[in-house]
Amino acid sequence: xxxxxxxxxxxxxxxxxxxxxxxxxxxxxxxxxxxxxxxxxxxxxxxxxxxxxxxxxxxxxxxxxxxxxxxxxxxxxxxxxxxxxxxxxxxxxxxxxxxxxxxxxxxxxxxxxxxxxxxxxxxxxxxxxxxxxxxxxxxxxxxxxxxxxxxxxxxxxxxxxxxxxxxxxxxxxxxxxxxxxxxxxxxxxxxxxxxxxxxxxxxxxxxxxxxxxxxxxxxxxxxxxxxxxxxxxxxxxxxxxxxxxxxxxxxxxxxxxxxxxxxxxxxxxxxxxxxxxxxxxxxxxxxxxxxxxxxxxxxxxxxxxxxxxxxxxxxxxxxxxxxxxxxxxxxxxxxxxxxxxxxxxxxxxxxxxxxxxxxxxxxxxxxxxxxxxxxxxxxxxxxxxxxxxxxxxxxxxxxxxxxxxxxxxxxxxxxxxxxxxxxxxxxxxxxxxxxxxxxxxxxxxxxxxxxxxxxxxxxxxxxxxxxxxxxxxxxxxxxxxxxxxxxxxxxxxxxxxxx
Length: 499
Prior knowledge:
This protein has 499 residues and is of the alpha/beta class. It is built from 19 helices and twelve strands. It folds into two domains: 2-17 and 58-71 and 79-203 and 366-439, D-Maltodextrin-Binding Protein, domain 2 (3-Layer(aba) Sandwich), CATH 3.40.190; 206-364 and 455-498, Periplasmic binding protein-like II (D-Maltodextrin-Binding Protein, domain 2), CATH 3.40.190.10.
């Protein structure tokens, strides 16, 4: 899967290189701010209740079947009302998330009579990317495409192929205020104060734990672990007591244990504000702290308190199945954990090393955003339609609905306030913690996000080196040094391609 993603990104880079001028320099990052201690997580309760109903949204149609090839024709499209300015929106969210997205689009179409957004499901993110590549080459790119966050650097470099959101707003006169978004989201998809793509589905990793297993092991589930020392001790007790076969695991290893780990401890993943200030960034995740963390994981694996569950999201199943008592997983995994777990569970903040000054600070996001694509013959009215749609999905009530029905974060301050007013968090304890973790401090140059070329390939490299370390084939330092060296080679190849 990752090789497919890499291939797709390379194709995208080759396709867009001709139209990519030198990157716009980013402004100097704000100096790191001292971080207050995070708010304690609320006492866990039984698995959260069903979400409160959103204000009678349009029932979503069934998503169209993904096309067998990028140029294949999808299922018959709905008839576009006569006289409407129509734009195509290609997305990569399947059921049930895609259902909610299509319902949001339909409500936009009903909210006015001038514009019409035709939402078309193109399969998984990589399928959507392949379809967009083929369409752009044919001069028939969609007006809007949903792109996963690891493709951000490549899309930003393809300036001739995309129209930045701030330019769209200026040209159309439709206000798209970046300040309504929480800083961790806004910063990820912006160059300085200029928002380049429109945030949509954002998530951040959290720590879930098995309350029933905690009780069986003699652990206090009202006081979940906060530090890595406490996580290790709890994981070992879970296994030693027989409460669970595995104490601790994590999904998306680099996202949870490297990218977010760096952010929480305010240490650089790479120079140049993790690549946001230039493509000449160099990886720096072989610091003493990074090596220490990998060594901790290796020691935990050796003592039997940690189980490496595999790459990407392979380990997710280990928690709801009851095999592992603690997992670091996406905030968007909440729905799966809720539906599959046969035990009482809780959620809390990611742990940190309490001897690191200032830790923990804000975490960073994953997910996807919406990109405006250029194509021959595109009209001013079509761009106005895109801008009006973006303004619609930015409304507090729409953002709140999206958050409540999908499990993704409320990405605007207004969406979070609306969700609170709805009483959603009272009925779903812990559902507000991802927002709190992302906003507990102002982002620093190390916790703003990352923008590194060919990031999927760098993740694969880290997987390979860590797996060798877990298998006893090399030390933690060797693994991190090798990953940094190989990863920097990838960055230099990306930089050369765009310069």
